[in-house]
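Protocol step 4 of 5: obtain the predicted structure for the target chain.
Materials: sequence only (see below). No template structures provided, no constraints applied. The aim of this step is simply to have a reference model before the mutagenesis design in step 5. Sequence pasted as it appears in the construct record:
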Amino acid sequence: MGKSLLFRVLGIGAIPKKLQPVFDAEQIVVADQGMQGRLLYKNVKGPGKRFINRIEGFCGCLVVTKQRIVCFTYRKRQINIAVDDPKISEIFVAMPKENFLSISFESSTFRDGWKGIMEFQFNTNKAQEFLDTLKSIGAKGN
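Step 4 output (C-alpha cells):
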C-alpha cells in the first residue's frame, strides 16, 4: 500500500515523535503509519455530537505494543487501550478484503456518555498482521 500524500509531504499520520521512544520501550509488535483510512459513525450520540451515518477520511497510524493498542488520526489520539484490559473483548476486527483492516466497537464501551458504533477502516499492507495480533490479544474477529 502506498502511503498517503499528506504523510509523504507533511508527515501527517506519522507515529508521534515524542511517543516513539515509549512505544519502543513497550516493544512494538506491529505498527504502520501514514495509512489512509475512514472513520464511520453509525448512530453515534455523544456530548454535543450526533451522527446518524457519517464517514470521515483520515491519515493516521496504528501501533500495537506488548502493553497497549494506540491509534492516531490526523495527530489526534482515537484509541489507547491496554492489552490486558477486559474491554478488548468488545472490539471486533475484520479483514473484509486484502490490505484492508476494520476495527469496530460500541462507543459506550470506551467513552462515557456516548453510544453507537464507531468503525475504523485502514488501508495497510500489514492488515493480516494486525488482525492476527489483535485476535491473539482477545479482540473478536472473523
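Step 4 remarks: Strands lie at 28-46, 49-65, 68-73, 76-82, 92-97, 100-106, 115-123, 140-141. The first strand starts at residue 28 and ends at 46.
Proceed to step 5.
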